[in-house]
Amino acid sequence: AQKITQTQPGMFVQEKEAVTLDCTYDTSDQSYGLFWYKQPSSGEMIFLIYQGSYDEQNATEGRYSLNFQKARKSANLVISASQLGDSAMYFCAMRTSQGGSEKLVFGKGTKLTVNP
Amino acid sequence: GAGVSQSPRYKVTKRGQDVALRCDPISGHVSLYWYRQALGQGPEFLTYFNYEAQQDKSGLPNDRFSAERPEGSISTLTIQRTEQRDSAMYRCASSLGTRRQSSGNTIYFGEGSWLTVV
Questions:
Q1: Which chain A positions have a beta carbon within 8 Å of B59's beta carbon?
Q2: Least CA distance to B56: which residue of chain A?
Q3: Is the peptide bond before B8 cis (omega within 30 degrees of 0)?
Q4: Least CA distance to B3: which residue of chain A?
Q5: Contact (Cβ atoms closer than 8 angstroms) between residue A41 and residue A56
Q6: Are A10 and B40 within 8 A, CB to CB?
Q7: Contact (CB, 8 A) for B94 and B24
Q8: B93, B108 contact by CB (below 8 A)
Q9: Is the CB of residue A35 less than 8 Å away from at least one CB of chain B?
Q10: Digits of tens for pLDDT over chain B (118 positions)?
């Protein structure tokens, strides 16, 4: 069964510092995709970054990068130069496609607080 | 439209009433998903459509929940005889549905419909 594990319920970081949010996954699929979403207190689910299982390079999107270690089944999100507006819940998710279905499986999330 | 649109944004209903939640996906998106998210939890999969075909409804909690997408665009999630435990955020998402794992197949979420059953 597909599973996403986020072991950090909460994280704190000083403004302008970098922070890493952990995500490990479990799947027997050869082809899958990994996503990170940001959920601020307003409740939106904002797409941040994507990594495909066959992508050889780590994904980057501005201040966000994904540290993809396939053998260890980890897909950690790195946020550089944290800003106060980065305070939010962050969800790691895996997309799987099987038997005509396609779905995202989410972790429980990590609440990030950026301190001034 | 520019993004995934959901309505109503907020719905308060009495226990036992039926509720219909609407989702208008991004134009051209073939794949459509419904998720449910309780406070403090990650979203949980409910059902998936490819065009108008409901390919997976394994996440629907029971037979009070149903969904349709008759013309392959707008979708409706219906909850019959609502119960207090149905109170949650219901999210719709869509993607191009290329069936390939690529960055171009990103899944975008709507702002959600908050349902409160009293």
A1: 103
A2: A101
A3: yes
A4: A46
A5: no
A6: no
A7: no
A8: yes
A9: yes
A10: 579 999 999 999 999 999 999 999 999 999 999 999 998 889 999 999 999 999 999 999 999 999 999 999 999 999 999 999 999 999 999 998 765 556 567 899 999 999 999 9
